Amino acid sequence: MASNKHTIVALVADRPGVLNRMASLFRRRGFNIDSIAVGHSETPHLSRMTIVAEGSDTQVEQIRKQVEKIVDVIRVQDISGLNIVSRELALIKVKSTPETRSEIMQIVDIFRAKIVDVSADSLMVEATGDEEKVDSLYNLLKSFGIKEISRTGRIAMARGDQGGRRDEGDV
Amino acid sequence: MKLTGAQILCESLLKEGVDTIFGYPGGQVLPLYHTLTQYPKLRHILVRHEQGAVHAADAYARVTGRIGVCLATSGPGATNLITGLANAYIDSVPMVAVTGQVPRAMIGRDAFQEADITGITIPITKHNYLVMDIGDLARTVKEAFYIAGTGRPGPVLIDLPRDIQQEVTEFHYPARVTLPGYKPTLAGNPLQIKKAAKLLAEAKKPVLIAGHGVRISGAYLELKHLAEALQLPVITTLLGISAFPESHELSFGMMGMHGSAYANMAVTGCDLIIAVGMRFDDRATGKIAAFAPHAKVIHVDIDPAEIGKNVKVDVPIVGDVKAVLVELNKEIAAKRHDDWLAQIRDWKQQFPSGFEIRESSTILPQYVIRKIWETTKGDATVVTGVGQHQMFAAQHFFYDKPNSFITSGGLGTMGFELPAAFGAQTGLPGQTVWCIAGDGSFQMTVQELGTIRQENAPVKIAIINNGYLGMVRQWQELFYERNYSATPLWCPDFVGISQAYSIPAECVTQKTEVVPAIERAMAAQGPYIINFVVEPEENVYPMVPPGAGIDQILHEPGKEAS
């Protein structure tokens, strides 16, 4: 049973306490959530959650079934095995001096990230991409000195029409 | 017509067919209690502690198959429901609990008697609601009853702020619920059912394990048909007791930690398990790695999350037990397993331990249970607490009557028996309910004698009094060097306690008085209590030590196989 990261996508009712129910379920079953991201979906009153959690396939399958039992969860899918697009957004405030500013801007450019704020002694960088890309950028910027970083956690979607439907015939 | 929130709740309860509520008043449910007197069809039973209300509602639901309803105020009233909600949740009991909450404007301000009960009960309810708009109230009640009673049943909590109970609006009770995220699967997948039938046809040494789901679904006849057609040995879990008549030649009793040796050996030696409405609890399976090592597993359960949770399953069938068995019975052809059944009967000959009661000058707890069984001719509903007396009641009363054994299985809640026996009696007026209590367990909810007296419920109460917290003492004897830390238990004069509650009672210390006392209890019109002073250090055997495989059986000393 390989232990690895799973990406679980859930469509949930947009009601107070749903995030609490979800987080409580993971905690109670002894699961660590790596990241959880929630936002509106294409349907009014429904939100889409992306949860990244680590565990064996059997454990994650059990958690998925338990999540499915939450009344406010409309449907849930483990999309890890599918061809997916996953992104996270990071805002990184990095120390800068007149000497380092252009070097930082070059790195940011290579990563197709953006400078979104400039002050006398810092730059704020906005980066989107998968976790590895954000990690790599972060590692490069680290040598200049990081003042603050804020990351969203992963959001994900299966390509084409693989996802978005209820799993048929599974138990 | 415009109604208050309190009236809307009462009207909605009537729409759901509720006629009995177990509850306890308090500040934040006063508008509701004020309104209850306008609704004589809603019988409110005043318990002595909210835990009594929730256990009574639990057992009421188990014996009637209806949804148990309990009512408590905010804060401490609500938190006193916690144990009972957890108990109902793990044993899949349909229940709706209504709690009062501080007025909306006070929520979140740490107001007097405020507790975040919806937050607290997320992990121990099937679903819960905090009603923040009176326009949602009727729909919420409708949904709560629907969720509690369908699919895998469970408790649902509705938290109702006091000001909403007083607010006024038009009452419309919705005809149906719309819950896009809640669609229980009732019919089994036909392909899987065919696969199961094929495995059953091929099996040489099959075993049928019946759990609580058989009782919840009322699938007694379907189960019996399956067992008889395929000549399957039937073994039950603790909560499966009374799903299949124990006098049946195919009945081989209970499996697990205190199951019969032959049931455990049959499960260990079988080549196919068909598990019906059970969840492979560790008290039933023992060490998972040693569980049924040669068996393929067919698992029928209404909850998809139960399948594959503890045991690897070859043929999963999600659905209501009764619906699945009806279809499965169409797919099977009659078959015999004479050699296999002979083998299990042979094990039964070799290891009868636990079912023979040895000679003793003192009263043995097993003897008391056996005599209650004989004297009632088995025509009783037995309600137990948790501990040795519970296991003796499981082993030594033989349950032929469907759904006649009410016990706290999953949570193991001491103190369950007295309020639960009262709740069961409320659901079964005119029928015999025996409360088998432990001296320790009984004292956890002893105040419910007040409820029993006030309602004159004819519950017959047998206290199996050994002066110890018996099951813990047994573990200390066997696994903790006989260090009886905190298990000797001073008991009050139970007869004196009963007299204080105006309930007739007697104390039995002589073996010859056991049967006459039981007869006197049965002849009494109302409640009756017998304090049976039994052998202090009697143990429950057979026993599988915790963490061992279920065939690693400890037999009663002197009763090992010859």
Characterise this structure.
The complex is a heterodimer of chains A (171) and B (562). With 171 residues, chain A is of the alpha+beta class. Chain A contains four helices and nine strands, in the order βαββαββαββαββ. Chain A has helices at residues 18-28, 57-69, 101-110, 131-142; strands at residues 3-13, 33-40, 46-56, 73-78, 84-95, 114-118, 122-129, 146-151, 155-158. The model of chain A is unreliable at 166-171 (pLDDT under 50). In chain B, helix 3 (50-64) packs parallel to helix 5, helix 9 packs across helix 14 (321-331) and helix 16 crosses helix 17. The longest helix of chain B is centred in the first third of the chain and has 15 residues, at 50-64. Chain B is built from 23 helices and 20 strands. Classes of the chains: A alpha+beta (171), B alpha/beta (562). Chain A binds chain B through residues 12-13, 16-17, 20-21, 24-25, 28, 58, 61-62, 65-66, 68-75, 169, 171, and chain B through 118-119, 122-123, 126-127, 130, 147, 179-182, 189, 303-305, 307-309, 316, 318.
